[in-house]
Amino acid sequence: MYLYYTSDNYVHFICIKAFTLFKVYFILKSTTGYNHIERRAFKVLDKSSKVPLYLQLMNEIIEKIEQETYEEHDKLPSERELCDMYKLSRITVRQALQELEREGYIYKLHGKGTFVSAASIEQNLVKLYSFTEEMKKVGKTPMTKVLSFKEIAIDTRIANKMGLEPLDEVFEVVRLRLADEQPLMYETSYLPKKWFPYLTKEKLMEKPMYDIFSHDYQVHVTRAIERFSATQLRETEAGYLNALTQQPAMLIKRFAYHHEQLIEYTISVARGDKFDYTVELT
Asked: What's the whole-number mean pLDDT along residues 134-140?
């Protein structure tokens, strides 16, 4: 098992050796509605190893998550229970949990405990991608709900972003993007009416937007620019995304072009705990 971590801008490569010595420990696991005793095997950490104990504990918990001993949204043992289970100090356990949270393996709910995060979805940013196709690649079932569809005259602010004139007509499309019925992104798209005459809500409900562009209008997205920034969920967005207001999120602004003509301006709000974006530098 291998674990990568970053410290002081240097990437360290650590090989965690296999441990063969096990103990059996009884822990009290809280569930909604009742408590029960669960019998669980765990590894004894090697205190003579040069690998720091907090990294050994991280690796142990990650292994249990990957093997689905701990499943998504399972509650983990408390800091005190982990101290007792692995004979570690509170400082060591806390450091391991903090690093696991930073890397997205776990999340904390105030007053309730620490839980296993749902697996995040990785998107590679070096090429054009479609939400629908990316979800299919990772074995998830994509779904799009069209929340609203309007024909509007744009204001100066949006006109400037899209290279249009104020009061030009566009379609404003608000959509909710889901994978395996779990809401992930709240999107608002602006599409110039002159490029997509007779576009309807019904069409957008039948097939992916980019398929409509290419099949119905012979318009292809040849390049796109995306801008990323951190944000917090507003009340409406949080409601649709089954999240908390002001929860951290990713704001993504996409400018999609057919050759040199801008055909789509989309503002997406993605749950920060559900996505990893990857850029490969060469």
From this structure: 74
pLDDT(18) > 80: no
Element (H, E) at 149: strand 142-153
- Report residue 144 as tokens: 């799009």
> Is residue 105 helix, strand or coil?
coil
Q: Do domains 2-116 and 121-278 have the same CATH topology?
A: no
Q: Model-level pTM?
A: 0.60
Query: What is the C-alpha to C-alpha distance for residues 17 and 248, in angstroms, rounded to an integer?
Result: 36
Q: Which residues contact 110 (CB under 8 A, 6 or more apart)?
A: none
Query: What's the mean per-residue pLDDT of the chain?
Result: 79
- Comparing 2 with 144, the larger pLDDT belongs to 144
- The region of weakest confidence among 72-86, 126-140, 149-163, 177-191 is 126-140
Is 122 strand, coil or helix? strand
**DSSP assignment string, 3-14:** EEEEETTEEEEE
Pick the CATH number of 121-278 from 3.40.1410.10, 2.60.120.260, 1.10.569.10, 3.30.70.20: 3.40.1410.10
* CATH topology (fold) of 2-116: Arc Repressor Mutant, subunit A (1.10.10)
Q: Domain ranges in the chain? A: 2-116, 121-278
DSSP 31-99: -SS-EEEEEEEEEPP-TTSSS-HHHHHHHHHHHHHHTTSSPTTPBPPPHHHHHHHHT--HHHHHHHHHH
pLDDT in the model for residue 135: 73
